[in-house]
Amino acid sequence: MIVAFSVTPLGVGEDVGEYVADAVRVVRESGLPNRTDAMFTSVEGEWDEVMDVVKRAVAVVEARAPRVSLVLKADIRPGVEDGLTSKVETVERHLAG
């Protein structure tokens, strides 16, 4: 399963990079395959482990912000591994062809 999520602290002003970095740090320290871009962090693994990472990432932001927004999208496809890489490679192959 791949989960793309975004955690945004609310009520802390415009500069939220430090809070987002705290959440991304939780994801990176999880050891699960992950990627971060300008809008979302994607993490890949089994349901329970991925959701645990998301929960901990939200909690680390929640500890410092009065309110937190979470946007989450999940691709639940049992038996697929390395989807973070293979999905992008497929698109790139089509673009090159």
TrEMBL record:
Q: Please give the Pfam families that the UniProt record associates with this protein.
A: Thiamine_BP
Q: What NCBIfam families does this protein map onto?
A: MTH1187 family thiamine-binding protein (TIGR00106)
Membership in a protein family: Belongs to the UPF0045 family.
Q: What is this protein called?
A: MTH1187 family thiamine-binding protein
Which organism encodes this protein?
Answer: Streptomyces lusitanus
Name all Thiamine-binding protein domain ranges.
3-92
InterPro entries cross-referenced by the UniProt entry: MTH1187/YkoF-like, Thiamine_BP, UPF0045_domain
Q: Which domain of life is it from?
A: Bacteria
